[in-house]
Amino acid sequence: MISADDLRLTFGKGTPLENPALRGMSLTVNQGEFVTVIGSNGAGKSTFLNALAGEVMVDSGQIVVDNQDVTRLPTYKRASRVARVFQDPLAGTCENLSIEENLALAIKRGQRRGLSTAVKKQYLGQFRESLSSLKLGLENRLGDKMGLLSGGQRQAVSLLMASLTPSSILLLDEHTAALDPKTGAFVLELTEKIIEEQKLTALMVTHSMKQALDVGDRTVMLHQGQVVFDIAGKEREGLEVKDLLGLFEKQRGLEVDDDSLLLG
Amino acid sequence: MLSEIAFYGALETGLIYGLVAFGIYISFRVLDFPDLTVDGSFPLGAAVSAVLIIHGWNPWIATGAAVLAGMAAGSVTALLNVKLKILNLLASILTMIALYSVNLRVMGRPNVALLSEQTVLTPWYDLGLAYHQVPVVLFLIVVLVALFLLWRFMKSETGLAMRATGANPRMARAQGIATGGMIVLGVALSNGLVGLAGALFAQSQGAADVTMGVGVIVIGLASLIGGEALITPNTVIRALLACVVGAIIYRLAIAFALNADVLGLQAQDLNLITAVLVTLAIVLPGVRNSVVSKFTRKKA
Fold this sequence. Notes:
Helix content of chain B: over 70%
Structural class of chain A: alpha/beta
Oligomer: heterodimer
Number of strands of chain B: 2
Largest interface: A-B, 35 and 23 residues
Helix content of chain A: 25-40%
CATH topology of chain A: Rossmann fold
């Protein structure tokens, strides 16, 4: 379980470029929930995710993961509980390291690292097994450099790395946005499969309203650094993109003029 | 042609600079941290070991102290960067400048002679080897031990975390790696190796001098880049071998250039030769590729 309470964060405070990114953001994600997050550019989606991960520190508010206050902890101290897949396929893996070395890094996420060999023999079976579930033939390429893989393959491996060890929450930051539609669909399908099989708690940011409604079991919309609506269960079933837009306009009393929300 | 003594002399300094190149590999390549501290930590290692030796310490313990001194210097640079957010290059220049004063303080004068002292080399002269071969044999052993330990370290969980820190710090943090701590550890390790090199250099040359660090960074980089041009560093072991091979070849090239009378070069031309060799090492692999591609048909 992860809960954010009244998060506030302003970039460039006291300068002409002052930008309030989070203005009282509150959200609780319960154990086993798969929440999709939408919002226009500048709504605070990425900042919210970065705040949960620890990459940015909030000015005020509280973040609690599994009953522990992590608000002031840096990223690396939250890593045992928070797993993450980035938007940029190059960001989640090290291209100069081999596939098995990347996986070996991930299998120790948030744990103490000692002086024993990183790529242990007993890991290899597990690595091969999880890689073969991707059906990309990567199980025979453990020693290959990550840089040799395509963007989609790297994103699939990133996803695998994020789910290799248990986490309290999996953060997915528009992780299919940088991929071509076919590869994006493959990675999304894989995401759903992994989340369902391992019963993960996940928060997925997306630019596409359709995707936000198609996957997961709860949808949250952000606007100007706040949650404007939060739908789940029966209310969410059968909802379409135009209903979502209607909801948004009703909530805010304004027109949506951002094409990216309509086109998704 | 090169005389036998000049040849062994080049091997000896080449092996010492191999240790420097290991250090530079860790900072520049593994951590992507351009660290110029080495120009100060090399003479620091020399100064610390020389002063302890003339005060009657065991030369190996004095050498160990030089390693620790180098590590401390590296830690200062890394902490200036990690804790005080000073740009890495500038942080290392600050430490390097400060070390000049520190080195003078350590020695109490600009240089310390070791000519009649017991050094790590002394017991090895009784083994029946030729005089000029002794340092080569001992330093080769030291370099091979360092190479093996570094190789094992880079393959360990902590070493892998260090490599990830340099290659992709954001990903490293997300994997729970304290990247700041890794930078401190790596830069300390790097300068510890350079301190070791300085200590061995002082003992084999018979003196520590406050100016002996000038240009060490360039020589180390020349060795690293030259070695990488010869041995593609696509694995850790190859990258480490490239450091040693590069350093030895570099010193041999220097010795050869200075010994070839036709070229008319003298010792004072050393820095010019270094700059030319570094330039060649950087440019030549590209030239080779473009020449090769002119003569080979591209495969579809």
